[in-house]
User: Which sequence fits this backbone?
């Protein structure tokens, strides 16, 4: 009861804060979406539609009280809106499993629409940083207990060590591992450029601890996707490093030592990771390949997709194993890949929009980083845009093995790309306004200031 | 025990961020240079 009362009070803080500064409602929505107080508490907040209340309050407060300096129309927002329209079309245009399609559409459409709205709500540097801080500290509710229990028990495959149990959302191992790796570059940025929390040495230690906990939780999931993600993250940081040769040598040494350990040792984690190389003998991994083949066959007859949860009609014939010497048929196997998930559910059009969203977001962040680098006082923006690029690559690669195409974490990344673009464009506008008026001098071939 | 400690840490951090963000967002310019607060604990300012 005490826990429920306390969490309800925190929910109340977000609601009250929203009446002082409307963007706090947006922060409350992120907190509800990530920390899921309705699942952590036993009563009060678990009995009311916390997410809907916060989303409606955020949208109303923005429309009525806070419509200043919104980001202009941009390609990412157009693509997100198109995605929302397209998934609605595939849901209501003869889906293969209507009831289940409607069930997933109900939460996915909210995620998509709110992500299109987020850049209008988080515009200033403080608001963007508050978004990141709330996201990371809310996520800590999942990865900190996971890391702690991994240290105590050694971790295990398929365990729910976080605050929320189950096999969905952040309670699912590979999703948690991917999201943990996504936020490490954000934590790295906040440790250096946070303005909301003071830059005391203890804060740097807290951020370092959070990053370490993310990594421990990620390894503790025993997910093969996590290992792939760690490599992606390492390559991402290496690419932006100034001492590439030194780090390459250190990485080579680490890989050499790790491969020696893997070859000679025998423990659960190593045994699990070794199955990456023998995926055709491992039913879990091999089934994914068969599901992906089924999806490609399915879209030949359904090029517009089968609507949400279309995988439920699949029947996968698996080869013989010890338990089934004759082989057997498995039904309703999930896509286990964001790309095949979108392809099977929303066809080639949906996949095209989805891939365009990733590509546009990545290029927008790259563009923002390049522009911010040349602007005095915008080092934070340059650093954040570069770190978000690394964050974005993690779900692009890890997502190839997990079905999280409509999880909020991916759409937050698209929204953050728009926010960074808005920051840079607004700073450019300010810079132009502050510069003395100039005219083009044909003799000099350049613009010269009027004095 | 671990869960309760984590809930405490996570929620207190969120509430602190909310209060600080509301205050700073009113004081600092939204865009461009000069978005760094001045004062103890912000050595870069």
Assistant:
């Amino acid at each position: 009861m005490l826990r429920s009362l306390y969490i309800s009070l925190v929910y109340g803080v977000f609601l009250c804060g929203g009446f002082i500064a409307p963007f706090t409602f947006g922060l409350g929505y992120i907190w509800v979406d990530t920390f899921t107080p309705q699942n952590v508490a036993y009563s009060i907040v678990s009995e009311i539609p916390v997410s809907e209340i916060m989303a409606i309050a955020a949208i109303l407060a923005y429309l009525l009280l806070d419509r200043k300096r919104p980001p202009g129309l941009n390609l990412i927002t157009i693509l997100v809106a198109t995605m929302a329209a397209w998934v609605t079309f595939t849901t209501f245009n003869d889906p293969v499993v209507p009831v289940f399609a409607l069930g997933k559409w109900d939460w996915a459409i909210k995620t998509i629409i709110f992500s299109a709205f987020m850049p209008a709500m988080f515009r200033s540097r403080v608001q963007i940083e508050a978004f990141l801080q709330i996201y990371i500290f809310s996520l800590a509710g999942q990865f900190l207990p996971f890391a702690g229990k991994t240290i105590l028990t050694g971790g295990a495959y398929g365990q729910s060590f976080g605050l929320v149990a189950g096999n969905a959302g952040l309670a699912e191992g590979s999703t948690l591992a991917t999201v943990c790796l996504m936020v490490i570059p954000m934590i790295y940025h906040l440790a250096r450029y946070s303005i909301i929390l003071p830059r005391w040495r203890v804060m740097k230690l807290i951020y370092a601890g959070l990053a370490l906990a993310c990594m421990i939780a990620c390894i503790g999931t025993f997910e093969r996707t996590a290992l792939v993600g760690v490599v992606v993250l390492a390559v991402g940081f290496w690419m932006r490093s100034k001492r590439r040769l030194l780090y390459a040598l250190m990485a080579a040494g680490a890989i050499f030592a790790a491969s020696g350990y893997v070859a000679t040792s025998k423990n659960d984690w190593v045994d699990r990771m070794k199955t990456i190389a023998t995926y055709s003998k491992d039913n879990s991994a091999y089934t994914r390949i068969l599901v992906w083949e089924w999806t490609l066959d399915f879209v030949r007859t359904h090029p517009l997709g089968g609507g949400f949860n279309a995988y439920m009609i699949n029947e996968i014939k698996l080869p013989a194993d010890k338990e089934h010497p004759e082989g057997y048929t498995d039904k309703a196997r999930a896509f286990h890949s964001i790309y095949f998930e979108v392809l099977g559910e929303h066809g080639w059009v949906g996949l095209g929009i989805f891939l365009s969203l990733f590509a546009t977001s990545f290029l927008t962040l790259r563009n923002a980083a390049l522009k911010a680098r040349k602007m005095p006082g915008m080092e934070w923006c340059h650093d954040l845009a570069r770190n978000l690029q690394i964050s974005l690559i993690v779900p692009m690669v890890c997502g190839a093995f997990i079905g999280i195409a409509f999880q909020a974490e991916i759409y937050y990344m698209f929204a953050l790309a728009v926010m960074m673009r808005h920051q840079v464009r607004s700073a450019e506008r300010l810079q132009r306004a502050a510069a003395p008026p100039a005219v083009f001098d044909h003799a000099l071939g350049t613009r010269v200031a009027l004095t | 025990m671990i869960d309760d400690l984590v809930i405490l840490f996570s929620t207190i951090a969120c509430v602190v961020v909310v209060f600080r963000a509301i205050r700073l967002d009113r004081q600092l310019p939204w865009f461009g240079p000069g978005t760094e607060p001045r004062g103890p604990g912000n050595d870069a300012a």
About this structure: The beta strands of chain A are 315-318, 328-331, 438-441, 446-449.
